[in-house]
Amino acid sequence: MVAPESSRLWRRLMTLAEIGAIPGGGVDRQALTEGEASGWRLVIGWGREAGLHPATDAAGNLFLVLPGRDRAVAPVLLGSHLDTQPTGGRFDGAAGVLAALDAVTDLAASGRVPERDCVVVAWMNEEGSRFAPGMMGSEAFCGVRDLAAIRAVRDADGITVGDALDRFLAGFPDLPRRPLAAPVAAYLELHIEQGPVLEAAGCPVGIVTGIQGKKTVSVCLSGAEGHAGTLAMPERRDAVAAFARCAVALHAAIGGLDPAIKFTIGRVQVTPNAPSVIAREVRFSIDLRHPDNAVLDAAGARIAPLCAAEAAPCTVAVTPLVTAPSNAFDPVLRERIGRAAADLGFRAMPLLSAAGHDARHLAGLCPSAMIFVPCRAGISHAPAEWAEPADLAAGTAVLARLLHDLAFATALPLAGPPG
Amino acid sequence: MVAPESSRLWRRLMTLAEIGAIPGGGVDRQALTEGEASGWRLVIGWGREAGLHPATDAAGNLFLVLPGRDRAVAPVLLGSHLDTQPTGGRFDGAAGVLAALDAVTDLAASGRVPERDCVVVAWMNEEGSRFAPGMMGSEAFCGVRDLAAIRAVRDADGITVGDALDRFLAGFPDLPRRPLAAPVAAYLELHIEQGPVLEAAGCPVGIVTGIQGKKTVSVCLSGAEGHAGTLAMPERRDAVAAFARCAVALHAAIGGLDPAIKFTIGRVQVTPNAPSVIAREVRFSIDLRHPDNAVLDAAGARIAPLCAAEAAPCTVAVTPLVTAPSNAFDPVLRERIGRAAADLGFRAMPLLSAAGHDARHLAGLCPSAMIFVPCRAGISHAPAEWAEPADLAAGTAVLARLLHDLAFATALPLAGPPG
Predict the structure, then answer these.
(1) Cβ-defined contact of A378 to B129 (cutoff 8 Å)
(2) What is the average pLDDT across B329-347?
(3) B414 belongs to a structural domain
(4) Any known ligand binding at A166?
(5) What is the pLDDT of residue B418?
(6) Which of B273, B289, B379 comes nearest A267 by C-beta?
(7) What ipTM goes with this model?
(8) Which of A265, A319, B351, B371 is most exposed, with minimal Cβ within 10 Å?
């Protein structure tokens, strides 16, 4: 038995983390960049070694296909994403893609041909940091969002997803294109928890019950530019001052609503952003999450009136970007995750995902499930992000067991427990 | 008599404003950029037409010299700056340089040789928007700040003043270098008021009594990065939330101190500035001004304790950048400005400058004075900045009269009025 920290999975995670490495052990490998292309080349190479066939689609998702006996039936998909936040960690996304590759590689090496195709997937732009909002690849694949609308989104430099995607895929001219919105038999995703629950409980395996609801909103405050040394205070329409009042009011009213709410202003863009110029505009992002859709909607509805009350003498425009209600994962697959963990001797517990994942969209297309592994102190989206090799090995073993169930089942979806 | 809007001065102002033109009639021509170099080439060309000799110095100031009879005596300097804010106007700085060029051009055309050199100057980086804080050229020239320290300052892309300056001056290899800190007989600067006083009073000429005191401060709030969807609100150290509390408290306590105070947070930089990442750091600028040095000092002293009280659980570091006490301009030159305006039939009134100017530093080196012209609605540092052609012509005529006094005086400084 290989020690977890000497395993193929762990070595590959650390190798992949060298692409886009930043100080403190973190990774900056944003969507459709040269860094992500390098990640693709590495992962495609590992897939080819295992006999898998790489492919892509019009949305820039990456697939590694182990062909099944009957190519005509819907495949099992399993994976996550390879892109990171600008100051992200080594595990968010990458762990799920490489765990899936590990499981499919072992299946291929067993010599037994599965009933159906087993496909490792890396979704395009899960993070949404370069092009907001994220989960573009899974949204396009699942028909949640039109690809033309996704292609029109621009990054901070004005580059569209369409241009970045065409350039990115031009670097992989030999990859066949799979259709979008093709039938899928089941979807599995392993991910670090990005919260403190599993670590605190001493559980290496989390059975994800669902994903908490999320709203993202963009707010634009418009004032008037002026000279910092000359314009009297009462005559100013200072967008930074208005932003500060709005942010304090929003944090107090929404951030303090109940213990389960998450309220974040993560991006603030000031124009012209010069020390001696009164700002004429501030655009800021709101990320709001709650497991209860009614609370989420009620909190979201307060954003515009709170801003309107505080913004004067500036004007305010509130633009909703994403509303993703909370969802529940497939109960049969959840039961199977628990059974697999028990068979393998790992403690497991159910928990809600506080973070969003591509599995949210797949769950609308096919029976889907997620396996969480603990991460240290709940830290994620930061260089200090860390998962223990043994926990990743446990989660991957459970994923492999579930893949085996699905790969060789003659009929899907799997039936639930009797009674 | 040429109508003011058909004059050489006005046509040149409009031509110069095409370099770095931005929508709405504004200008983006920041220090040591290709745009400023184009401005230099234009102004040097006009100076050469008038028989002036261009030169520079180690701090990247531009000089256009009309030689006097005695080259050994200290020259008269007159000018302003050619750089602008990123969303600046057509008059701030440019009006002063081109008015000075107009006055010296007329003097040269008269055929009479002045007693001493008369030198048009455009100071390097008055605005301080690309490299903060500003007034670098006049500070280096006057020995207020060491050139080595200035050269080490970096812009947002990490480029130092030193590197930008060396590259900029390499584009002007034929310009002789004048020494820094050479004696100056007197300094005159025309500028738009950047406030509403002259317009409201219907006065085309302002006799600037002095410049209000200014402090600039940089504040850094440090928290901890985290995932917007997972980290519970009480466990966060959100630098944006801390910024909002600090900004509200600072505006209330300092911005509301008295009617004469000016308090501005114009620049806010969030790290990593991604919608779904709790910010680990916010750096922001404070620009604080008041005509009374005691009030300025007392207000400045409140910044650090106010931030410390609001920043928790983030930590705060407050770095003072500039403290420029209020100053008074030379009383003899002020009296001469009033007399020149009266002789020419223009209404004139004394007023304090709310904005900082290079003349602040020159006033420590030699007798100095400033002439203000009105600008519409007090708007400056914005594309809507506007000055009437007739007001600019009036201010320039007064400047030319004063230049004449200084150019032909056999002894400087000028004597005050009798009694």
Answers:
(1) no
(2) 97
(3) no
(4) no
(5) 65
(6) B273
(7) 0.75
(8) A319
* A94 against B133, higher pLDDT: A94
Of the residues A291, A324, A357, which one is the last residue of a structural domain? A324
State the CATH number of the domain containing residue B294.
3.30.70.360
Distance in Å, alpha carbon of A312 to nearest chain B alpha carbon: 14
Task: Output the CA torsion sign for B178, B181, B183, B184.
Answer: positive
Residue B335 CA to residue B265 CA, distance in Å, equals 37
What's the Cα-to-Cα distance from A144 to each of A133, A164, A182, A218, B183, rounded to whole Å? Answer: 13, 21, 13, 20, 73
Residue A322 sits at the chain B interface (C-beta within 8 Å): no
Same domain assignment for residues B69 and B106: yes
Closest CA to B269 of B280, B259, B258: B280
Number of domains in chain A: 2
Q: Which residues of A touch B87 (CB under 8 A)?
A: 225, 271-272, 274, 277, 280
Answer yes or no: is B127 a known binding residue. yes
Task: Print the domain residue range for A107.
Answer: 4-212+327-408
Length of chain B (residues): 419
**A127 annotated as belonging to a binding site for a ligand:** yes
- What the block records as the tokens of B67 is 């030689």
Which residues are CB-neighbours of A217 under 8 A, at least 6 positions away?
A285, A286, A288, A300, A303, A318, A319, A320, A321
A355 pLDDT band, cuts 50/70/90, is confident
Q: Which residues of A touch B240 (CB under 8 A)?
A: 247, 265-266, 268
Contacts of A259 in chain B (CB under 8 A): 232-233
User: DSSP secondary-structure letter at A112?
Assistant: P
For residue A144, the model assigns a pLDDT of 92
Please tell me which of the candidates A134, A230, A244 has its beta carbon nearest to residue B380. Answer: A230
Return the CATH number at A132.
3.40.630.10
Tokens of residue A328, six digits: 């529940």
Q: In this structure, are A302 and A401 located in the same domain?
A: no
Partner B contacted by A127 (CB < 8 A): yes
**275-304 in chain B: CB under 8 A from chain A:** 275-280, 282, 285, 287, 289
Q: What gap in Å lies between CA A153 and CA A132, rounded to an integer?
A: 8
Do A287 and A230 share a domain, yes or no?
yes
Q: Residues B187, B333: one domain? A: yes
Q: How many beta-carbon pairs under 8 angstroms link A with B?
A: 247
CB contact under 8 A, A227 and B289: no
B225 and B175 share a domain? no
**What is the rounded distance in angstroms from the CA atom of residue A95 to the CA atom of residue A93?**
5
Q: Are B267 and A280 inside 8 Å of each other by CB? A: no
B283 inside domain: yes
Residue of chain A minimizing CA distance to B234: A259
- The answer to whether A212 and A263 have CB atoms below 8 angstroms apart is no
Amino acid identity, residue A50? A
The mean pLDDT value for B234-258 works out to: 96
My answer on whether A229 and A318 are in the same domain is yes
Annotated binding-site residue? B290: no
Confidence check: pLDDT of B417 > 90? no
Mean pLDDT of the B324-339 span = 94
Question: Are B165 and B271 within one domain?
Answer: no
Residues 11-50 on A with a CB inside 8 Å of B are: none
- Amino acid identity, residue A343? D
A191 is in an annotated binding site: yes
The CA distance from B211 to A4, in Å, is 69
pLDDT range class, residue B419, cuts 50, 70, 90 = low
Query: What confidence category does residue B265 fall into, taking pLDDT thresholds of 50, 70 and 90?
Result: very high
Residues A187 and A151 occupy one common structural domain: yes
